Amino acid sequence: MKPVRIGLIGVGTVGASTALVLKNNALEIGRRAGRSIEVIHASRRTISQGMPAGTEAIPLTADPFEIVNNPDVDIVVELIGGYEPALALVMKAIENGKHVVTANKALIAMHGNEIFAAAQAKGVNVVFEAAVAGGVPIIKAIREGLSANHIEWLAGIINGTGNFILTEMRDKGRDFQDVLAEAQALGYAEADPTFDVEGIDAAHKLCILGSIAFGIPLQFSAVYTEGISAISTEDVLYAGELGYRIKHLGIARRTESGIEMRVHPTLIPEKRLIANVDGVMNAVLVMADKLGPSLYYGPGAGANPTASSVIADIIDVARTIDTDAEKRVPHLAFQPGQIADIPILPISEAITAYYLRLRVDDKPGVMADITRIMGESEISIEAILQKEPEPGITQATIIMLTQKIREKQMNQALAKIAALSSVNDKIHRIRLETLDAN
Ligand code: HSE
Q: What positions carry a catalytic annotation?
């Protein structure tokens, strides 16, 4: 059988590793794909850096449009990231009848609907396993492995850089900026690292996971997004005292009125497996009606893990390259005509438990005022921790855990509590999820 010919766009951390792994594991890959896979053309902006040692024979250009217009290329592998020129390149590749493998979560989350419609019309495949959770085959697991199930919710640690920062801060007391610089040096962080720390990268990935879990269009702008930059060491320590870990989670949950899609720091019980996912590792916990809970864990960023997913996609495309388009696995797991416009709920409608940290005057009646407001707002308190004031200080710190409540009710109660003259400073609130079956 003829080899499948790859055009590689981007020879950075992941692109270089993809070229090398395709070469070094060629025999095993060929045995799986049923034909050999060859990179016949590559592009990189900094052409002077050349191809990685061992792959120098691959012709290299500085112009990525040469790759998508090369008539000998069967599959375009886009590994440059970002919106442009990635979108123009992918659309041109599709127009030229080429299949596309991409690791670009921003592109899929923002422009996936348009890309998949074009690919469907042209009968080509666009695959994106490496876009979510790096080397963890979570797209395949949800799209194929769980296809018998009604998926109820999923919760994931889906940004390796953010998890690496939180872990190092907690375990070694390291400074935020110092850990971020290390994540950048290791090739984990996005070109713009605010995408990692402000939750945008995780929101791109959650948007994709939500679409394939529930069969809804990609709607990035509807994902509520909060990053890790406001998490303090104090909250990490208090959460620990109460038996919780703070993780940056992406949560997608189906409810009777719509779908919750939210990315934010979250307290989770430390006894949950996912609470112990540390460093650059990612994990996605999926609650499915027939399987129950299942957890997918592995390296969420880095050269070889991401190349592992890219190449698995290349092999999948190679296996079905001569197959009728409608016999392939649908891009968003559900047949294109079955994608449903289920509403995505605003964050004010999300139902979750809370961790609250308040700074109050240390005098009689303060706690009674706070609990009265909570009671009037139908918020049930699960636990209270009061920290003794330091000598000479007349203010105390109160930590509260509440039971689940609709976010807008919590907002109303917090506004009333903040207006009490005995409550000083901002009230710190972190959402809390028990991640059990309910
Ligand atoms: N910046 C991303 C992360 C890379 O840290 O998870 C993998 O998508």
A: 205
